């Protein structure tokens, strides 16, 4: 009961944010030893393990990619290929953002993509004024009337609404429907993309670490199996969410609607938008040694993660050593290489006969410690560690066994129905509380529930973990929503309405995908001995 009290206390603090999330995560270091649950040494070991090191490695990779500018080149290149109508642009930006968010944090992906989207919107807005000036009087009068009715306009980013604020007479911006789609694309695509790989979100790594702590004899979750399961549902959810936004705000299937007329930029508008993208891409210049090196190392670490234990063949680790090699080894290896490999090739001229070509100072690495120290989210280590401590304390104190005894009555309920209820609960709670905190609270309960009703622990834990990331209704629900809301001046009411579709889509797709495709990928049909 002592452990249950500590977990309840941490859950209350995480939900209400009475203390900062990482500070709440440190509570077990104080209370576990004093209440006789675990020693200080055992508790502190929960905060630094394979999952934590992998998490740190993924954060370093995100910082390095952002610092090199590789993400910008990749995004602009894909948009050039896809095309520049509003529909194609939003579709391209959606999938580009999802792909980027698979490898770096959702927050970083949103922050990277919004400036690109804003540049496109600003240029489209200037195109609309240029086209408008060249129209005859009759057509111009007709368009003015349409703009008045729709409160939008060809490429307009915002409409101005007079209102009384703290500064009297100030104009309040509100986004047009077309503008709102671009900002929602940045937020929603980042959230969905974070589910695509095990390093894409803190909640994914929380599950990995918790599973290894609670069920040490389990085969665990590897990079390959996670991607094999999660990428197809991620792509489907992304496409359906994009369609939802098109129907709601861009008049898809309603060609005569105000929204559909407002986004019709015409062939000239598409050419101008394509020119903007082309100009931005050319401004980047040829690919630099810095970008090339980061790209090669990024591909290298992904291959190391994927082929460490792919399942369909022996992994590379089996040929190197008989000891257990985890994904953190690859992450730390590439992290060190980022510091070793120089960002410029100046050193090649160190012995040049021409003294002007000789470098006067040492070349910096692909990343510096100062940059890492400034941009790393160190606090999340303690949030993750707090969750792992909950798992270890539950097992050590006997709380897990007690919960299993009380939950055994759930065997009478259909497991798919239980999964639906659990996913629905996780999606709604995560709208109000940090995603990782929600995962830390519900995963211990779900683990014991699975043991009690004798189903594979991943049957409930993995879909619930994914749903902990699906926050679409409130700006405060997740950092990508907050960034999009602030940059796009999107009201909370509009966010709540826009999030209805993605919430339903993700809930339904997750339950169907995991009860079908997930059972095949993770072999969930049997209740393994390691779960007892």
UniProtKB/TrEMBL annotation:
Gene Ontology CC annotations of this record: plasma membrane
* Chief place of localization: membrane
Record carries keyword Transmembrane helix: yes
User: Where do the coiled-coil regions begin and end?
Assistant: none
Instruction: Enumerate the UniProt keywords alphabetically.
Output: Membrane, Signal, Transmembrane, Transmembrane helix
Which N-terminal residues, if any, form the signal peptide? 1-20
Decide whether keyword Membrane is in the record. yes
What the entry lists under Pfam families is as follows:
Na_sulph_symp
The superkingdom of the source organism is Eukaryota
Could you state a single Gene Ontology molecular function term? succinate transmembrane transporter activity
User: What is the annotated localization of this protein?
Assistant: Membrane
> Which sequence ranges are marked TM in the entry?
7-31, 51-68, 89-106, 112-132, 180-203, 223-245, 289-308, 328-351, 378-399, 405-425, 432-455, 495-517
Q: List the membrane topology term(s).
A: Multi-pass membrane protein
The record, for InterPro entries, names: SLC13A/DASS (IPR001898)
Q: Which family does it belong to?
A: Belongs to the SLC13A/DASS transporter (TC 2.A.47) family. NADC subfamily.
The protein's name is: INDY1 protein
Species per Swiss-Prot/TrEMBL record: Acromyrmex heyeri
